[in-house]
Design a protein that fits this description.
By secondary structure, the protein is mostly helical. Helix content is 79%, strand content 0%.
Length: 328
């Protein structure tokens, strides 16, 4: 069983690296879709994502959740909110990449954990540990430094970070599987997106099929680009501890940042380096605190088992260590 557990964790780690790696490299994909604009690309992403996910659900015969969901108006409302928020996130991200703002977009996903923590304090009245307060304060200082460097607030980063944090909060309340959740959200987005694409076609300003078969295939592939990383993420989430996923999440913005600087040759003046350095310091504090808390929680659980006279099993520490702390 231990060998099987180790194999499952290795597979989960590969799935996690694959998911965040694909999210990190996706800035290479969006420019291939030009001359289509960000809203047209977004509409294609919505339409083709639903087509792909519906096909997957048909193959897997996973339709029972739909009837149950339709009987829960509150969940339907939350899914509509999630669909709206992720529409803003997707659309702005595509626009930012194609407008040459990959570095600022990557910053949004660097500061997302800090925004999530801040929202937990403001909305859920969560209590933070001192290291978490220090990380949030350092992140706020970073935004101020970057605002001075840019000559404006880094609004792309802030909108991406806050929209994704709200999306995560709503998804937590909806609490349905990743594939099912994506299907429900894209079902909400589908009709407006399809109507927009049909309107573009009627106006003669759409690009599907007008730039050749290869470009049309790339537009259709937006569904694959959306769904495959999510499937990999779902496979990772059930195989590795959440603490491991928390560390892997930094892969995506690291890849995006490196692409922005090295591949797209975006400017990085000293004040921007200073702001990013503060962000990375904040994330280091956050990661150190999360790992320390996970070790303490595991040690306390082992001590509790020992005091109860129960011999701890080989896999017990992994299960305990995989739980997120309440003050996260």
């Amino acid at each position: 069983m231990a060998a099987k557990s180790g194999g499952e964790q290795r597979a989960g780690l590969l799935y996690g690296v694959g998911a965040y790696g694909m999210w990190g490299l996706v800035p290479l994909f969006w420019p291939l879709l030009k001359p289509a604009g960000a809203i047209e690309i977004l509409a294609h992403r919505m339409v083709w994502s639903l087509v792909l996910v519906a096909a997957a659900l048909l193959v897997l015969r996973r339709w029972g959740w739909i009837r149950e969901l339709l009987r829960q108006p509150r969940k339907l409302g939350l899914i509509a909110v999630a669909a709206t928020v992720i529409t803003v996130n997707w659309g702005l991200y595509i626009w930012a990449v194609n407008a040459g703002q990959v570095v600022e977009a990557s910053l949004g996903y660097f500061i997302n954990p800090l925004v999530t923590i801040a929202m937990g304090v403001l909305l859920l009245k969560e209590r933070l540990r001192p290291a978490q307060w220090a990380a949030v304060g350092t992140g706020f200082a970073a935004v101020v430094v970057l605002a001075v460097g840019y000559g404006r607030p880094p609004w792309i980063s802030l909108v991406l970070a806050f929209s994704f944090a709200i999306y995560g909060l709503v998804k937590k309340k909806v609490n349905i599987g990743g594939l099912e959740s994506l299907a429900a959200e894209t079902a909400v987005q589908f009709l407006p997106a399809l109507a927009y694409l049909l309107w573009l076609g009627a106006q003669g300003s759409g690009h599907f099929g007008t730039q050749g078969a290869g470009h049309a295939a790339l537009l259709a592939a937006t569904g694959v680009v959306t769904a495959v990383p999510l499937v990999c993420f779902g496979a990772a989430a059930i195989r590795v501890p959440l603490s491991t996923l928390g560390l892997l999440q930094y892969l995506a913005p690291v890849f995006q940042f490196l692409l922005g600087v090295v591949y797209f040759h975006e400017a990085m003046p000293p004040e921007r380096w200073a702001g990013f350095s503060l962000v990375w310091l904040a994330l280091t504090l956050l990661t150190w605190d999360a790992l320390r808390t996970a070790r303490r929680t595991r040690a306390e659980a082992l001590a509790l088992r020992a005091s109860a006279g129960a011999a701890p099993t080989t896999g017990a520490p992994m299960a305990v260590g995989g739980r997120p702390s309440d003050g996260r």
